[in-house]
Amino acid sequence: MRVAIAGAGLAGLSCAKYLIDAGHTPIVLESRDVLGGLVAAWKDEDGDWYETGLHAFFGAYPNMLQLMAELGIEDRLQWKQHTLIFNQPDKPGVLSRFDVPDIPAPFNVIVSILRNNDMLTWEQKVRFAIGLTPAIVRGQKYVEEMDKYSMDEWLRRQGIDEKVSTDVFIAASKALTFINPDEVSSTILLTALNRFLQERYGSKIAFLDGSPTERLCQPIVDYITAGGGEVHLKKPLKEIQLHEDGTVKGFLMRGLDGAADEVITADAYVSAMSVDVMKVLTPSSWKTMAFFQKLDGLEGVPVINLHLWFDRKLTDIDQLLFSRSELLSVYADMSVTCKEYADPDRSMLELVLAPAKDWIDKSDDEIIAATMKDLERLFPQHFGTDNPAKLRKFKVVKTPRSVYTATPGRQAYRPDQVTPVPNFFLSGSYTMQRYLGSMEGAVLSGKLTAQALVNSQWLSDLSHSTNDSASTRHQPQPMAKI
Ligand SMILES: Cc1cc2nc3c(=O)[nH]c(=O)nc-3n(C[C@H](O)[C@H](O)[C@H](O)COP(=O)(O)OP(=O)(O)OC[C@H]3O[C@@H](n4cnc5c(N)ncnc54)[C@H](O)[C@@H]3O)c2cc1C
């Protein structure tokens, strides 16, 4: 079966990889000249990498870890000490740690919370533990039901005071969704907490040893092409062309650099584009279907990724840090955390600015000036002093619409990978899967889409009635377990 996939983010690439494993022929068509979508990275004029986002991998990412193991690249993950580190807003430069001991879950996380007295009082810990009980006892069903409440509303209903939200959940909310706890669905944070409480190494963090484009996406592409599939850059989908019965006839691709438009045909078609693009490209005759109307309930959230290169070393902490500042979310000194970005003498801070809705239209200079002000609190020993660290250069990467905005009620709008159009499927971290808008969610969605394609009765009937030479090219493997 030949499958045309629009979008070479992690979802599109994962879908293609698992289609190869099942003996099919994916053709991946990416609009930009770079792989990876939201994990895309570029080299600047000095050969230094800069990225769409600072990306942390978690132990609770089974599908990502399995994919990397299948590609033989699992050693590219640099696992860090099992600890979560937070800045303290009232104590500039002072850090608070949740060190997770190497004992079975959930005791490891519970011990780490009990041992931390900087961020939660004993009364808050007890109330929080009681509040979490239904999530632990009733599991994901309860967690899904809580999608109607924001994190702040959920905490109030559990009798947990607001300080827990401003102290702890602001960090988790901004890191996971790029919005604040008064806006984020409680389902998001409860899902993450549940994973961390159930898996011994669930909250353990790893960084990739280089740029995601070269070190993660390229090996997937090599696997796809070695298996007879194709991956093309600079191939934007312009229109989804339909047969009279509403099924897809072809993908009309926009010709770039003076080239003519061309139609790509296949047995099945996948959109692995972001939900915002999919909404624009939905054919008008599909817009009457409830399934596609639901997409209007989803929208990408703005976020900004910053890279600041300094003339000296600011820290030797080899870990992701949660800033707990109003402006910034997580950050890391990539000259320490990432092998390919290593520099023994000078720091490169990568920082996520979120929520970014009030900043996305501001100039790079304004954004950097505000960030430098914040660094006085994060690194008081290096900024606001007589001899401050000097900023050598910076890069600002703005993404006006990134992962879906995870406000209350969004779960009901997240579509399945299977659509009412029998030869058209969706993939992407916004589609329904249990890992939210993350790299793990993207990889899982791609796998689910491949599985749905393989199991499609309509397509199976079609392939029996045609002589699909491509399907004889590879030895089909059983679909990887999800
Ligand atoms: C700043 C930032 C930090 C993040 N941090 C983390 C983290 O620490 N951990 C984590 O797990 N996740 C993180 N994420 C989320 C993660 O990057 C995403 O969930 C994931 O990469 C989404 O993959 P996707 O394939 O679903 O979508 P996308 O990456 O959006 O892929 C969609 C692809 O479709 C292409 N496309 C669009 N239009 C067309 C068209 N017309 N024709 C053809 N192709 C088209 C796009 O160019 C893109 O390549 C972060 C994201 C950002 C932005």
- Return the average pLDDT rounded to an integer: 93
Low-pLDDT runs of 5+ residues are 467-476, 478-482
Largest sheet: 7 strands, mixed
Number of domains: 3
Whole-Å distance between the termini? 22 Å
CATH superfamily of the largest domain: FAD/NAD(P)-binding domain
Give an overview in words.
By secondary structure, this protein is of the alpha/beta class. It folds into three domains: 2-40 and 211-297 and 408-472, FAD/NAD(P)-binding domain (3-Layer(bba) Sandwich); 104-202; 303-399, Polyamine Oxidase, Chain A, domain 2 (Alpha-Beta Complex), CATH 3.90.660. Helix content is 33%, strand content 19%. The chain has helices at 10-21, 62-70, 107-115, 122-145, 151-157, 162-177, 186-198, 212-226, 275-281, 290-293, 334-337, 364-378, 439-455, 457-465; strands at residues 2-6, 25-29, 41-43, 49-51, 57-58, 77-79, 83-87, 95-99, 205-208, 230-232, 237-242, 248-253, 262-264, 268-271, 303-310, 321-322, 328-333, 348-353, 391-399, 424-426. A seven-stranded mixed β-sheet has the order 8-7-16-17-18-15-19. It has a five-stranded parallel β-sheet with strand order 10-2-1-14-20, covered by helices on one side. Helix 4 packs across helix 7. The longest helix has 24 residues, at 122-145. It starts with a strand and ends in a 17-residue tail after the last helix. It binds flavin-adenine dinucleotide. The site of flavin-adenine dinucleotide has 39 residues, from helix 1, strand 15 and helix 13.
